[in-house]
Design goal:
This protein is mainly α and about 190 residues long. Helix content is about 50%, strand content about 10%. Helix 2 packs antiparallel against helix 8 and helix 4 runs parallel beside helix 8 (about 140-160).
Length: about 190
């Protein structure tokens, strides 16, 4: 029979928004990206993560509907400046529509091609540049995109620390970790 958890042990199993960012975006995401195989499906993780990061910046409830585009674009604002041209509605490579919506609803990007760092080097393709084989499409390199999302997550955590993101939202209980060994996060 499993022992009852004391209140401190139970609280360690409830991760705040900030702890969720640390555990999932900075902890689990790189572990998944660095696993061999299945590069295509890994891109699917980026859309909800970017939308979540954007949701962390507003004062609305996380469950409020109708904010996907706004939140995704807010998440994109945390990425390095080289992504700026992909946040413009109506552009040929609007990442919300061509990447986020198409991947969520069809599992197929529009206006973008996916590759890995190794394949990009072999093909002489560059992250966020036009695909050398598919003119008019922008290359997304798995590892580069993942690293940029992790930088965005760190930037968001710094914003919380500096009082530039809603403190109450950062401290809000987000996920309950199940199992006997919760994440070991300070």
């Amino acid at each position: 029979m499993e022992k009852e958890l004391n209140s401190e042990e139970y609280e360690r199993r409830i991760l705040s928004t900030k702890k969720t960012i640390e555990a999932v975006v900075l902890g689990e995401l790189p572990a998944i990206i660095n696993c061999n195989g299945a590069p295509y499906i890994k891109f699917l993780l980026f859309a909800p993560i970017l939308e979540f990061l954007g949701a962390c910046l507003d004062n609305e409830n996380f469950t409020k509907e109708g904010l996907s585009e706004i939140r995704f674009n807010k998440g994109m604002e945390l990425l390095p400046d080289r992504y700026n041209g992909f946040r413009n509605a109506g552009s040929d490579h609007y990442m919300y529509e061509g990447f986020r919506c198409n991947m969520v609803h069809r599992l197929v990007p529009h206006g973008f091609t996916f590759t890995t760092r190794k394949e990009a080097l072999e093909d002489k393709n560059v992250h966020l540049k036009e695909d050398v084989f598919n003119k008019g499409k922008i290359v997304l390199v798995l590892e580069d995109f993942a690293e940029d999302i992790q930088k965005a997550a760190k930037k968001l955590l710094n914003m919380y620390d500096q009082g530039k993101a809603p403190k109450a939202k950062g401290d809000e209980p987000m996920i309950k970790v199940t199992g006997k060994k919760p994440y070991n996060i300070n």
